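Record pair follows.
FIRST:
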Amino acid sequence: MSDCIFCQIALGKVPSEIAYEDDEIIAFKDIQPLAPVHLVIIPKIHLRSLNDVTSDNEGLIGHLFGIIRRLAEEFGVAESGYRVVTNTGTDGGQVIGHLHFHLLGGKALNANIG
């Protein structure tokens, strides 16, 4: 989608600090980090939100979570703990209409969800 910022990042048209990339997934540092480790992990195909995931995408989502686990190890937060968050829809706090997951860690995170 030409107007989707995350699609533009996946295509390399918008610069970002890439932490991981393969044919299906890209992970990059959040430009407004909420924790010492704050990565955004997205599928390269445009899925608007978790509501768009179907059984056809199960392999992709499983791969994505495997990469999240690997990134937690690489960024040194696997042992101390980390949070993985996705927001879906307006009430869920989704701001960008492309399925994405936040990996947050590197400090004790507040348990308050909001």
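SECOND:
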Amino acid sequence: MPDVLQDRAGVQVLVCDPAGPPVATEQDALDLIGAAFLGAQVVAVPTARLDESFFTLGTGFAGEVMQKFVNYRLRLAVVGDISRHLATSAALRALVHESNRAEHIWFVPDLDALDARLTAIAS
């Protein structure tokens, strides 16, 4: 399935195909942001699309990607199981915890959890 714009809980979400091109560079993130300008408010990126360096905070890649989404006033939802990354990094656990408390970047296990977040902020 290609990346597709979906209405999820009343919000336009660009749901990215897990088999799509990897997000391994800042330009890859900008390409997703450009695709979102077709009307999306949220970009849901499966963990399978994210380069491993995203989960190694010392590389700075996660920060670059997340800052791009904030700058363009788009929400980013990282969708999928990241437990193996969390198990090895206290810094990543802290980042996920703080991100999930805020409005722009969320780490969710699946699209149902994203729908619940979107529904909660609409109330």
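COMMENT: The beta strands are 4-8, 11-15, 42-46, 75-79, 105-108.
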